[in-house]
Amino acid sequence: MRLRREIYSLYFKRIELQGFKSFADPVTIDLNDGITCIVGPNGSGKSNISDALRWVLGEQSPKSLRGGKMDDVIFAGTATRKPKGMAEVSLVIDNSLGILPLEYNEVQVTRRMYRSGESEYLINGNQCRLRDIKELFMDTGIGVDGYSIIGQGKIQEIVSTKPENRREIFEEAAGVVLYKSRKAEAERKLASASDNLERVKDIIAEIEGRIGTLKDESEKASEYIVLRDRYKYVGVNIIIHNIDGLIRTVENSRNELIEMENQLRAIDERSENIELKIEEIRDKSSMLDQAYEEANAELLEKIEELNTITSRGQVNEEKIQGIERELTRLESVIEETKNKLEAENNNFAELEANEKSYRAEKGQALAALQKAEADFNESKRKLEAINSEIENSKDDIISLSNKNITRKADISTLENYVTTLNDRKEKLSEEYSGKDETDAENARQLIQLEEQYREVENKQNVAASQLNEIIANIRSLEDQTSNNAKQIEDLSNKYNRTLARKNTIEEMESNYEGYNNAVRLLMKQHTRGIIGTVSDLIKVPTGYEVATETALGAAMQNIICDDDASAKSAVRWLKDNKAGRATFLPLSSIRYNKQYPEREIENAPGYLGVASEIVKAEDKYHSILEYLLGRVIFTSNMDDAVRISKMTSKGYRIVTTDGEVINSSGAITGGKFKNKSANILERKNEIKELSEAALKHREQITALREEITAANVKIAELKESRGKVYDELQQIEVDKGVIASELERIKKLTDDAGSHKDLYASELDTLNGDIERATDMVTKHRAEIADAEAEITRLNNHIEELMGEAEKYDNRVNKLREITLENKLQLSEQDARILGLNELIERVRDTITDLENELEEAAEAYEELKEKHHMLTSSDAESSEKILQLTEFKQNLEERIKELGVSINDNKAAYEEAIKDQKKLAHELNELQDAKYKLEVKSAKSETLLDTQKDKLWDEFEVSFAEAQDIRDDDFGITAGNKEAKEIKLRIAELGDVNISSIEEYKSVSKRYEFMTAQENDISTAMKELRSIITNMERNIRDKFKENFDKVVINFEHSFRELFGGGHAELRLEDESDPLSSGIEIIAQPPGKKLKNINLMSGGEKTLTAIALMFAVIKAKPTPFCILDEVEAALDEANIERFSSYLKRFEDVQFALITHHKATMEHADVLYGVTMPEQGISRVLSLKFEDGFDPSEYSNE
Questions:
Q1: C-alpha radius of gyration, the chain, whole number
Q2: Torsion angle of alpha carbons 326, 330, 331, 332, nearest 10°?
Q3: Residue 1151 pairs with which residues in a beta bridge?
Q4: CB within 8 A of 522, min separation 6: which ones?
């Protein structure tokens, strides 16, 4: 046996199992230097030792532990044994050289799992996390993902898996797992920093959105102050100049008015004389007009009669000429339409012929397409069927190969088993000799042991009951704590969101956002006598916020003050600071007239009440409420509001709870604010609701935290009690197991007393039967192996045939795909042609129909005109005698009318002269009156302007006329001054609302902006450093991986040659340019064969190649300990010898081999036999060769 060297980095001393899978009783396995073999028949529990080591190192997959769920690792009980409540595995490591980063010479790693689902990890008895254990062994090769545990099927997985999945074993060997873990942590930090940067950028963006505005407002405010002072100087001098001019204008107007009144009296006397003369002329004119009208009427009657007779013939002649011209035109139209119709019919026939031709071509293209698609689909279906058959055949080959490996392993086990049975036959006679002497003693011991067993069993039941109760309580408390923690997290999120929302709205409220600038600045001043805004002093019931704010409108921002003096003082402050305008409600001055709605309105559906009665305030503000809301009615909805508005005549405004308004005039207003925080009343109520919600959340969180604290204290107490009860129960189970084992042994001996010969014969028959059955199974397995190998050969040949056929169909499918595409393009082209042709045919058909209709209409019009022409030409001429009589009478009347006209003209001339004189006099009077009126208006206007200008001095500049004399500039140019004043006013108007406080606010926000910008730079710098760290990590990972990979490549070549006795093997990166993620290919060339991919090798060659790779990795970076679970099952005797000999070269590695092969056992330094003397219960026997034991005697025990 080899001695452990001091240069060992780590040394596994032992593994302790208790309640793990089939190891119901405590078992300790010492892990010695060199090679330790673990042997035993199938199903005895050998591989459970490998699973235990994997489990204690942190395995989280039940499937990797050959189970369905994780609690399958706990001993499940047998027909005679109760299930265990816990599984525990401990791994003890010698750390005397301090390789592990712990200040202990001996490190014990323990994992426990309770049937309740709880897990515990401990390092030297101190609780820890799974992460702590993984980090403890990281990059040592030890771990569930490393190469220290090669379980059943792992070898096959290494050679059969995809190249990219082979990286784990190389990365663990290269020691880059820690770097990759740290890189992942750096990437998480980078992602977190990126999120923080985004949040900071959002804040900066928000500030930038404000700072630009604030900067503009600050600059506007500064400019406004300069403009305001200059405007005062210019404006006062302009007003003084205007006042001087107005005083002179008023004095001149008064002197002109006295002179105009004297002129008006003289004109009145002349006007009376002219009026009498005009009256006489009007009477004479009336008589002449009457006679003239009678004569003129008679003349018109005779003229009309004469015209009727003479004009009839002329009209008929004109109609005949017009009809003849229209007939000529219609003949031309009919001829032209017939020609067009003939041409369109010819065009239509030609288009129809072309359409039929195109459709025939389309039919041919469609038939070709359908045929090509049918051929394509059929070929594709056959290709898919062939590929499916190829895949199935490959799966069958893999399945048959795996089955052959299992059968060969079973054959080896069965042969060893037969040898063991034959050895057992030889020793059977010795085991049954000399038993008569002990039968009496065994009977006495049996009675004592049965009594002891009952006592221990009672103690076990009591302890188990206590343990279950404690576990149930712990689970209940932990569930409660977990639920409370989740509730706290949810409540904390709600509390933070509520608090953030509350702080935002309170900040808006404290800054009076939503109020106009004047109100906001004045309320911040805390001026004496100012009580607050209307919105601050009223209390609005829930649900009436929108209605109240709508009803009040701008009055929400009215400022309530004590008296008129307070209001004047506030107005003066606003003027001084140019802060805007505001409305004030002095409590001492506000008056109201109480008004009550009609009784029918109070009983109307939807009527909620008068707003001043719904909205509340302190009694001293009642007059304000009545003043503002006494004539407002609240209703439920729009329909009720419309109905009620028609029932009242007292001028009420009707407002719905949604904010629609019906004014007393009938006008309707509606809509909604863009955001909730814009509504001042809702904002105030929301602050109250958020405060209550935040307080409630905080109280709930406090209560839950107190519950968690109390529960944690209780859990700690219960866990301590559980540990004590569990230790007691474990001791009881150990005592019980010892007593039960002894009791079973004594009972068996007692039952067997006197029947040695029968038992001997029975056991001998059993041994012979087992030998015969094992021999038959070996024969059967060998026959099955031969059949499977023949089937594999057949399937390989079949796959080659199918692949040739698949290639043929693949070429055909590609060709048919191209043909189908060409046919589809041709078909699309034909469809486009036919579609265009059909559209053209429809247009021609419509043209033909239109031409036919035109031809028909023209023919009908032609016939009608011919009929009219015939009727007009056949009429008789009128008699001329009547015409002569009427002509004579007409001439007499014309002479009389002429005489009357002369008399009328003479009278009219006299009348016009008199009227002319009257108009001239009236014009003079009107002009004089207009001049007087204009002068009066001008005088009054000048006096008003004079007062206005004096008031303007006070209103705009708060300067009296006397005080303005101090600002008067005698050299002031009025033209230039007016121009400058207009420019200043225009500029001030362009500035808009000016916020004087923005200057200080801009300074504050600028400081915050600078701070957040610095934060952004810091985070960006940190991200840059993290990216640099990640880059360095990647470089280290790449360098270490490449360095180790190169070593493994060299080692693999050497180990392959030694294990195969020659040949060549190599490892290749699929992508040399990307070693961090590239897959790894294995290329091997056994002696006398061609170089080929590992997937094309036989099962035995694959296994031996994988073992060579495993040795290459261990040689590149030795692992302190390595457990191999039946890795050589598929090897023959010669290869097992090479494998076992090669193991001896690794003097610094502790190997534990789970095996069936005798050749492997013969190279072992220590041999452990795993047996199952009791169904479902594994036991371990330890033997050392230096003690003189033969491994073949214990290989299957």
A1: 59
A2: 110
A3: 35, 1122
A4: 530, 559, 570, 573, 574, 579, 582
The whole-angstrom distance between residue 1028's C-alpha and the CA centroid of its chain comes to 31
The torsion angles phi and psi of 16, rounded to 5 degrees, stand at: -115, 130
Q: Please work out, in degrees rounded to the nearest 5, the angle formed at the alpha carbon of residue 730 by the alpha carbons of 724 and 731.
A: 95
Tens of pLDDT, residue by residue over 238-275, are 888 888 887 878 778 777 777 777 777 777 777 777 77
Q: What are phi and psi of 1061, to 5 degrees?
A: 75, 35
**Gap between the Cα atoms of 274 and 1090, Å rounded:** 147
Q: Is the CB of residue 673 less than 8 Å from the CB of residue 693?
A: no
pLDDT tens track for 1125-1180: 887 777 777 787 888 888 888 877 888 888 877 777 877 888 888 888 778 888 88
80 CB contacts (<8 Å, ≥6 apart)?
1174, 1175
Long-range CB contact pairs, 838-841, < 8 A, 24+: 838/355, 840/351, 841/348, 841/351, 841/352, 841/355
Tokens read off for 600: 């029918």
For 395, the token pair is 């799966």
* Residues 6+ away with beta carbon under 8 Å from 929: 264
Tokens 């068996």 appear where? 748
For 693, the token pair is 């919600």
User: How far is 795 from 778, CA to CA, in rounded Å?
Assistant: 25
How far is residue 920 from each of residues 94, 113, 268, 845, measured CA to CA in Å? 140, 128, 13, 81
Helix (H, G, I), strand (E, B) or coil at 1181: strand
Q: What is the DSSP string of 977-1014?
A: HHHHHHHHHHHHHHH-S--TTHHHHHHHHHHHHHHHHH
Overall pTM surpassing 0.70 (yes/no) = no
Q: What is the DSSP string of 243-280?
A: HHHHHHHHHHHHHHHHHHHHHHHHHHHHHHHHHHHHHH
Q: CB 933: neighbour CB atoms within 10 A? A: 11
